[in-house]
Amino acid sequence: MNLMSTVGTNTGVRSQAEGPTAAVSANSVAGTVKRKPFLLRPAAKVLLFALCLLPFWWLFYGAWANTLGPNPAEALIRASGDWTLRFLCITLAVSPLRQWANLPALARFRRMLGLFTFFYLLLHFLSYSWLDQGFNIDAIVKDIIKRPFILVGTAGLLLMALLAVTSFNRAIKAMGAARWQMLHRAIYAIALLGLLHFFWMRAAKNDFAEVAVYAVVIAVLLGWRMKRALAKRGAGTAI
Ligand code: HEM
């Protein structure tokens, strides 16, 4: 899976459907002024951007108005962790949804969703570093070594940072599409690390209901990707 992909289909979508030539020729053939589908319009990206920021504003308002409950620090750390996992799942769902609904234009939104995953993960890490550890680097390092679930989460954070800094077109050009795509498959490893982090944390409380829901969602998304990879390999050997 290509987290913040603009390689391949993304570029294709833009050149085939977004290009001015395509719009002009479609109009002249039909003899009427045809409007671009909403998903291909800049407004769609603006709308998605605003939607992705809603959880942030909700948390920000909650912290400001003191409506996050009796333990606002814990609520903020947990809610930002939940949103990280949700955005990870949404990002992983783009490709299957694109294929299933036959909407190639969805690829345009993958990079933004991936970057929002990183945004909420940074918020999660910063809330923890500030509200749990008082920005004490020594304490943070000791905690990472001491608590396995924090160590696993940190591995996810480091991998995610690598994907975020290489998510831009210049990095794709510098690395080459094949190497870039290979690196960006790490999104699956990040999803599994995030899930393990969540599982480990909830194991201490013997509370697995929510973890099970995320595990099913991630298993379905990973299963889809593996099935597609196997089908591609099969087609390759048949030729
Ligand atoms: C891919 C990376 C990560 C994901 C997906 C993730 C996700 C989550 C989730 C879903 C929760 C549970 C929220 C709940 O109970 O509703 C959580 C809790 C937590 N996470 Fe993360 N996390 C990640 C990385 C990190 C990192 C890097 C740190 C710190 C170094 C961290 C520290 C914590 C802490 C302290 C809690 C709360 C524990 C508690 O309240 O007992 N997480 N995280």
Written account of the structure:
The chain is mainly alpha-helical. Helix content is 79%, strand content 0%. It is built from eleven helices and no strands. Helix 4 (72-100) packs parallel to helix 11. The longest helix is centred in the last third of the chain and has 30 residues, at 209-238. The chain starts with 8 loop residues before the first helix and ends with a helix. Protoporphyrin IX containing FE (HEM) binds at residues 74, 77-78, 81-82, 84-85, 121, 124-125, 128, 132, 150, 153-154, 156-157, 160, 190, 193-194, 197-198, 201.
Structural class computed from helices and strand pairing:
mainly alpha
* Rg from alpha-carbon coordinates: 21 Å
Shape category: globular
Major sheet characteristics: none
How are helices and strands ordered from N to C?
A: HHHHHHHHHHH
The N- and C-terminal alpha carbons lie at a distance of 24 Å
Keyword list:
binds protoporphyrin IX containing FE; 239 residues
Layout of strands and helices, then pairs:
Elements: H1 9-18, H2 20-30, H3 42-65, H4 72-100, H5 110-132, H6 137-146, H7 148-165, H8 169-175, H9 177-184, H10 186-203, H11 209-238
Helix pairs in contact: 1-2, 3-4, 3-5, 4-5, 4-10, 4-11, 5-7, 6-7, 7-10, 8-9, 10-11
The protein binds protoporphyrin IX containing FE.
Protoporphyrin IX containing FE binds at residues 74, 77-78, 81-82, 84-85, 121, 124-125, 128, 132, 150, 153-154, 156-157, 160, 190, 193-194, 197-198, 201.
